[in-house]
Amino acid sequence: MALRSALFAYRGESSPRTDLILAVVALAGFFVIWYLISAFEIVPQRFLPTPIDVVAALWTMLTVNNFIEDIWISVARVWGAFALSVVFAVPIGIWMSSYRIVGTLIEPVVDFIRYLPVPALVPLLIIWFGIGEASKIAVLFMGTFFQLVLLVADDAKRVPKEFIEIGYTLGGKPRNITKDIVFRSMMPNLVDNLRITLGWCWTWIIVAEIVAANSGIGHAIWSMRRFLKTPEVMAGILTIGIIGLVTDQLIRVAHRRYFRYL
Fold this sequence. Notes:
Elements: H1 2-8, H2 16-39, H3 51-63, H4 67-98, H5 100-114, H6 118-129, H7 133-157, H8 161-169, H9 174-203, H10 205-209, H11 217-226, H12 230-258
C-alpha cells in the first residue's frame, strides 16, 4: 500500500528495484503491443514486421553481413565527436558563466548556430571536410557542441554565489575557485547533461552516415531501405536504441554511485 502511494504521489520516491521492475514491464508491454499490431495485420507486416522477424534479421546481419563492424564504426564516430564536443564545450561554457565579456561575445554566435538545422549544413561540411571521416565527425559535433556549451554555462551559473564568496574570503584566486569550487559543484548536473547530449549525438549518426558513407549503422539502414528490407531497417534502428539505453543506464548508475550525497 505504501509502495502504491509512493508511486502515485506527486514526486513520490521508490526503490531502484521497483524502478527496474517497472522499466522491464514497460518494455515488455511495448513489445507485446508491437507484436499484436503486426501479427493481426493492423499494420501490414511489409511496413511493420513482428519483433521476432526483426530479431531474426538482426541475428542474420550480425552473423552473415558483418554488421558488428558497422556497429563499432558508429560507436567510434559518436564517442569521438562527443569527446571533442566535451573538450571544447566544458571550458568555454564555464568561461561564459564566469566572465561577462566572454558570455556576451560568444552566446549570440552560439544561439545563432544552434538554431541552424544540422542536415542543412551537411553539403557545406562535405565541401569543407570532404567525404571522409572528418565530415561525419563534423556533423555530429555541430549537432552536439552548441547545445552542450549552453547547458554547461547554465550549470556553472547555478553554483550558489555564496560558495564563490567563501572561496574569495579564504584567499582563492579565480583559477582555484573555478577548479575547486565551481567545477566540483556543477559536476552532478554536468554529468546529467553529458548523458542527455550523448543521446542527441546518437540521433545525428543517421544523418552523418547516409551521406557519402560506406560503413556504419546509418549506412546499413539506408542500404536496406533501397531494397525495402523493413526487418533489417528496424534491426538497425533497434541496435541504436539498445546501445543508447545501455549507455544511458550505465551513466545513471555511475551518477548514483559517485554522487550519493544527492
